[in-house]
Automatic annotation (TrEMBL):
Its main location: membrane. This is TRAP transporter small permease protein. It is found in: Cell inner membrane. Residues 35-158 form the Tripartite ATP-independent periplasmic transporters DctQ component domain. InterPro entries: DctQ, TRAP_DctQ.
Length: 174
């Protein structure tokens, strides 16, 4: 099977966006590694030394947010986001292309709306000084900031996909 087709950047701004996205994806991987290491440490600490940590559970939940929302734009850029193609695969290429690009526009608008809503919530958390309520409190905005970034960056990629001029190609053929 061929590697998935990646979105071709139309210019310098898109190249910068792609570089930021790739960096975020690597950070997402680092967060995932930290989650695995902290859980392993917690298991060893708890069951072999009878000394459970007070921070591992909080760290995992904090990093999980970053893991998801830093990876999301890269998955969209590489067109490996979740995509159910059964209807498009049965259509002529021109009609499938129009429908797919229309779906990308709708996805971009939905992600923009989510980014707007989440950025307002994050700003409110910052202004009000809201912290998490667990054994390892942290300012909520520091955790939430990844959410509007992920949605905004993903919205930009869906917009780029919608107007890239590429004809529909089934994910099986990519």
């Amino acid at each position: 099977m061929n590697a998935p087709a990646t979105l071709r950047p139309p210019g310098r701004l898109a190249s910068i966006h792609d570089a930021i996205t790739r960096f975020g994806f690597y950070c997402s991987g680092a967060c995932l590694a930290a989650i695995v290491l902290s859980y392993c440490y917690e298991v060893v600490s708890r069951y072999f030394f009878a000394a459970p940590t007070t921070w591992a559970s909080s760290l995992v939940s904090y990093l999980l947010c970053y893991t998801v929302f830093l990876a999301m734009p890269e998955l969209t850029r590489d067109r490996i986001h979740i995509f159910i193609s059964i209807v498009l695969d049965q259509m002529p290429v021109r009609a499938a292309t129009l429908l797919q690009h229309g779906a990308y526009v709708i996805a971009a608008l939905a992600c923009l709306a989510a980014a707007w809503f989440c950025s307002e919530a994050t700003w409110t958390q910052y202004v009000r000084g809201i912290s998490t309520v667990n054994e390892w409190p942290a300012p909520k905005w520091l955790l939430s900031i990844a959410i509007p970034y992920g949605f905004l960056s993903t919205a930009i990629y869906f917009g780029r996909l919608a107007f890239d001029g590429q004809p529909y190609q089934s994910p099986e053929g990519i």
